[in-house]
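seq:
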Amino acid sequence: MTRFLTERELLDLGFRNIGPGDLDDGGTYEWWRYSIGELDIDITDELDSDGEVTGSYVEIGNEAFHHLKKTDLIKLLKILRHGRAGD
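struct:
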């Protein structure tokens, strides 16, 4: 499994790193946030003790989306920023 977005993609889209944290099973997580107005969009990548990604999900306004596609998130960000997805 791979990260939902690479670090470069996250930074290019305007996400900021909230930081790593520890999971109960000995793994860690990386947490990224994009804020627009009152809305927060969080991306979390969960990693095992060897640093391998075991899961990724997106939270939009405290609602978790485990099957959101990268392209759909990018379209959503464009809509939130500009009122339309464009090309």
